[in-house]
Design brief:
The complex is a heterodimer. By secondary structure, chain A is an all-alpha fold. Chain A is built from 10 helices and 1 strand; from the N terminus they run βαααααααααα. In chain A, α8 packs antiparallel against α10 and α9 packs across α10. The relative contact order of chain A is 0.10. The chains are: A mainly alpha, B alpha/beta.
């Protein structure tokens, strides 16, 4: 007896990110090219504005890299899976929040794994918590602080964590789980 | 007992994959139940980090043994740390390799091979280099879109007047918060881009309510990823989750801004 996980196959096909991620910047460059022929002075001004903005964000970006490095050194995806959704009691909820916060990469890369966990009996609550708590991005905090300030980032982060737990509870109730 | 075999195809007649991390499929054979399942391997995409996802996939499938052509030292370390045995240097079809394993023929050859593998133990420097390489890849992967966003903001700053952008928003905090949440829901990509865009929108006089709602829904609501989410968790779960996240973003944005104003004052 055999089975092929067709949804996984369908989901993973056609995501050639290495080529796709250059489409957007290439389009912006084409717009710049067109504007340079129409209004070179204003296009140059736009380029200078972009470079200025880039320098403003450069320092927080260095911190972003350092935090990414620390996470890659000490946090392994296998640990995240083991943390995730161990029951729906307080410990399970806290671990699901932590797993969501420290998880990296695009969300769709996590779908097959979360689906597997669901198939293995994990409830809706930890999955909903995990997906929401991904809104807290510890490695991007330096950029967020540079844009909005400490107070804003701390308050939004705390509220996001609480909202992720509320989200888990809502989903659990609405999906008719005990 | 479950065994994962890296494979070039989705059945037992397929060749065993040359590399564990990047082979197109993992065949998960359950020796106890006598069946197997072919799972598309995330590592086959060749993106950074997806090789690690293959390891996580094997772990989440409760696999006890991995059979493959080659397994990198880093992957081997992760698998062994989770109690998974690895047998490398295998070729032929998945069915043949599986039969050999059942007969105990692989074990005798491969265990000796693993013991003599010089790269099994990697020092701290190797771990640091590995982490550095992954960080560089992750950083490089977000850079093109990020640079595109920065260049687009330069264009908006120069060619679009603040008055025009502000006119898109009504000035009503509640309505603007809804608008911000809506834009955040339809836009997708790295969260770092939402911070930069949000910061610039503030300069244009857009309310912090609206920008906060945009930042929240940018990550929590994914209309672009909705088909994939439906495929993974079902229509009811995906629609409910995205709907609640959208609605939840409004009170969170309002509370955040009110508390921030109180704290700053």
């Amino acid at each position: 007896m055999s089975s092929v996980n067709k949804e996984n196959v369908k989901e993973l096909k056609g995501k050639k990110a290495p080529a796709r991620m250059f489409i957007f910047p290439a389009c912006v460059l084409v717009i710049y090219g067109m504007l340079f022929t129409i209004d070179p002075n204003k296009a140059l001004m736009a380029l200078k504005t972009s470079i200025h903005l880039l320098f403003t964000i450069a320092q927080p970006l260095v911190f972003v890299f350092v935090i990414m490095l620390v996470f890659n050194l000490f946090v392994k995806p296998a640990q995240i899976v083991r943390l995730f959704g161990k029951g729906v009691r307080i410990k399970g909820i806290v671990l699901s929040v932590v797993a969501g916060i420290i998880s990296m990469g695009p969300i769709y890369a996590w779908y097959p794994l979360l689906k597997n966990l669901k198939e293995k009996g994990s409830g809706t609550c930890p999955i909903a918590i995990f997906l929401y708590s991904r809104a807290v991005k510890p490695f991007f905090l330096p950029v967020m602080i540079a844009c909005f300030g400490w107070a804003y980032v701390v308050i939004l982060t705390v509220l996001t964590v609480f909202a992720s737990i509320a989200m888990g509870c809502f989903m659990s109730i609405l999906m008719n789980e005990k | 007992m479950k065994i994962a075999i890296s494979s070039e195809g989705a059945d037992l007649k397929a060749r065993v994959g040359h590399r564990f991390g990047i082979s197109p499929y993992l065949i998960i054979a359950d020796l106890g139940a006598g069946n197997f399942e072919a799972v598309a391997s995330p590592g086959s995409l060749g993106q950074q980090g997806t090789g690690v996802q293959t390891i996580v996939l094997a772990i989440s499938k409760d696999v006890q043994t991995v059979l493959t052509g080659y397994c990198s030292p880093a992957a081997r370390r992760h698998l062994e740390a989770n109690g998974i045995e690895i047998f490398t240097g295998l070729s032929g079809t998945v069915g043949e390799v599986l039969e050999s394993y059942k007969k105990g023929e692989i074990q005798k050859v491969e265990v000796a091979k693993i013991e003599h593998e010089p790269e099994k133990r990697i020092g701290n420097m190797g771990i640091l280099i590995d982490a550095m390489r992954r960080s560089c890849n992750q950083f490089a992967s977000m850079l093109p879109i990020f640079l595109g966003v920065v260049m687009l903001i330069g264009l908006l700053n120069t060619f679009v007047s603040r008055q025009f952008l502000a006119s898109l928003f009504s000035g009503n905090p509640v309505l603007d918060t809804f608008l911000g949440a809506f834009f955040g829901s339809i836009l997708a990509g790295n969260a770092i881009n939402s911070y930069v865009i949000g910061g610039e929108l503030l300069r244009y006089g857009i309310s912090l309510f609206s920008v906060t709602a945009l930042i929240i829904t940018w990550v929590t609501v994914g209309l672009v990823q909705l088909p994939a989410e439906i495929a993974a968790f079902g229509r009811r779960f995906a629609l409910l989750r995205n709907g609640i996240c959208f609605l939840l973003s409004i009170p969170i944005a309002i509370i955040t801004v009110v508390v921030v104003n109180l704290v700053i004052r």
